[in-house]
């Protein structure tokens, strides 16, 4: 689990990021989860956008991605989610303790 200090730090790092995935009509599927896992391994911190035509609740979508990718949901603002997962081989971010 992330502390509030760590979440603040990650939010500030995520501020300038552009969403690299979009969840649309199809909702969350295996393919999306696989891509999110790969992106998190490469970047550690990503943004995901929920499109207007997504039929699932945004909190459900966030929970599904978080659980499926074994990642932390840092933030959910409007239709944008920020996820963090420490990279095994590609560590870039040093979290405050």
From TrEMBL:
The keyword RNA-binding applies. PANTHER family: RNA-BINDING PROTEIN YHBY. NCBIfam families: RNA_bind_YhbY. Coiled coil: none annotated. This is RNA-binding protein. Keywords: RNA-binding. InterPro entries: RNA-binding_CRM, RNA-binding_domain, RNA-binding_YhbY, YhbY-like_sf. Residues 1-96 form the CRM domain.
